[in-house]
Amino acid sequence: MLPVANLHLKDLYETTVEFFALRTPAFSHRSVPNDEPDSVDSEPPSPSGISPVSDPVATPQKEYTNLRVKRGTAKRARGPTTCSCRTLGASAAASALYTMRREHDATKSELARSQADSARWEEKCKLLEKTLKETKDMLRARDFEIEALKLDKAKLITDRHSRERPPSSLDRRRSQDIIRHRSNSSQSLSQRMRLGPELTEHRDTDATPQASSNSRRASSDVVRDNISTISEEDRAHAKGMEVFLTKTDLWSGAQVIQAVQDLNSEVLQFAASAVEVCTFTKQRTSQAKIGQAVNDVITRIGPSLTRMLSTHDHSQDPMLVQLALQGCIAFCISRALSSFCIGFQSKGNITLTQIYNRMFQSEPQPTSSRWRALAHKHIHELHPELSDYAVNEMTDTILRWTLDVFLICGCTNPQSNSSSREAFRTRFQSQVKRISKNACALAQIAREEIMSANFEVVGAESGRAFDAQEMVDVFEDYGASKGAVLCTTELGLRCSTRKATTVTSATPEENIERRLLLRPKVVLDSAMDVIDQR
Fold this sequence. Notes:
Layout: H1 16-23, H2 25-31, H3 58-164, H4 169-195, H5 197-245, H6 253-276, E1 279-280, H7 287-301, H8 303-311, H9 319-338, H10 346-362, H11 365-382, H12 386-408, E2 411-413, H13 418-448, E3 454-458, E4 472-473, E5 485-490, E6 492-498, E7 512-518, E8 521-524, H14 527-533
Parallel strand pairs: 4-8
Antiparallel strand pairs: 1-2, 3-6, 5-8, 6-7
């Protein structure tokens, strides 16, 4: 077994062979090459014949030299390694900085979105606070009105009972008591004269409590009967008047204005979409073929705008066609909402409108509003299919009027044939039907869900002089508003309320308070100058 005591000296030798050669003579002997040929008679070599081994002291010196050379090489190579490490460190820092910048940009974007959301919610909060304040003021005013009505009602009931009350049993009992008292007084007087003062005083003390108790009992019975009668009459009267005295609205004025603005936006979107898919040419169809369409359009938007549509070139800019289309739809909606009940027969509508106008001018506001709401509600209950019929009828009317406008403007797509017109109807059927549903819903709101006033949509008639207090020019930002009204592109809203007054000499119109909540938008003659410059 090899000795291990001096294993720490293994670094002094270059190879394992040298180590074993120094420690094992036999190994050294075997490891020495023998250039002479083997001989059978050759004797084993003697120890003196073994080749000498290198000096173990020189070997460490050589290794030390090699180590110094390697160390120098490592030092020279250390410079580029440090640079590469620095390069790697710089790239890592740049990557970290880029990541931080990206996170910073993302944070800034999120902060901007949060600020925008905060501003939007703040605006909504302000709007809600404003609406809440208006609602509180309205409720406070209605409370005052209710208290005033209650006082008036109590006063009227008191006056009526004081005037109409017949002679009651109290009067008869009082007369009987007076007669009885007089008879008793005469009897007591005669007895007092006969029996003396002592007996007279005794009789007087007995008769006086009895008479007073009888009178108190009779008066209490009469008062009780009167109170029960008055309370029953008051309950019956209040129950009958309760329906016609309420002025509670389910929709506020701001909500109705927003509904009208949404309806105008939908009309604008449809007109822009319809004009965008159409193609116009300079050539016009013969007047004989479009004569009926021209006459129909004149009744809707007036002769001036109809003449401009039929003579103007719309191939480059169909802006005038879009405005005329908005005017036709606005006129259709305004005409439908002016009737008492959309879709109801014309004669019945005329009669109901006349009745309501008469009641609105002569009766208190809650009474006429309640009659209007009940009549409109029961008409729809008697004819459940009336709502769907009104929506479909308005949809067909809008589409037909649209195609008439396109026909007189020289439109080649859709063409005048039935297949092309039917394709146009199919494409815009749903969009126009949505406009009709919103218009009918607005009519129901104005008729059934508002009791404190009368809301109606308004538009400017064609040919009317422009009035900045009652209408808005669509092109007012492009120049002075001049000329007459060509058409109404967006409907307005007007509120009418009958004032509570005791003056009997005032005319019915003087008792009506009218306010324009939303001004309609119109196109004037001066708009042609702006359109020609485009």
